[in-house]
Amino acid sequence: MQHILELVSPKHILGALRILPLIIVVVLLAPAWLSWVFLPESRQKRVIDLVKQLIEWTKATREERPTQ
Q1: Residue 13, CA distances (Å) to 3, 18, 36 in order
Q2: Which CA distances in Å does 37 have to 8, 28, 44?
Q3: Rounded Cα–Cα distance for residues 61 and 9 (Å)
Q4: Which helix (H) or strand (E) holds 8?
Q5: DSSP of 16-49
Q6: Can you tell me whether residue 65 is helix, strand or coil?
Q7: What does the alpha-carbon distance between residue 33 and residue 23 come to, in Å, rounded to a whole number?
Q8: Could you tell me if 55 and 19 are in contact, meaning their C-beta atoms sit under 8 angstroms apart?
Q9: How crowded is residue 39: how many other Cβ atoms within 10 Å of its Cβ?
Q10: What tens-digit pLDDT sequence spans the chain (68 residues)?
Q11: pLDDT at residue number 16
């Protein structure tokens, strides 16, 4: 067990924790994706807008902040 913990670096743990909210949102949106063909066009547009916002949020979290 200790050998496995030595292989996992804090950098990888922090990276996984950073994308955890995104994974949760995608899983919670699963019913919307499954019922996509039955959604009216206005709802489809809202889901697409939400996905675009998630993409922008994800890009913002990946940008490196300037050092001071």
Answers
A1: 16, 9, 34
A2: 42, 18, 9
A3: 20
A4: none
A5: HHHHHHHHHHHHHTHHHHHTGGGS-HHHHHHHHH
A6: coil
A7: 14
A8: no
A9: 14
A10: 556 666 777 777 777 788 888 888 888 888 878 888 888 999 889 988 988 998 888 787 766 555 54
A11: 78
d(CA 27, CA 4): 28
C-alpha 68/C-alpha 66 separation (Å) is 6
Helix axes 41-62 and 10-28, enclosed angle (nearest 10): 170
| CA distances in angstroms from 3 to 6, 14, 15, listed in the order given | 5, 19, 21
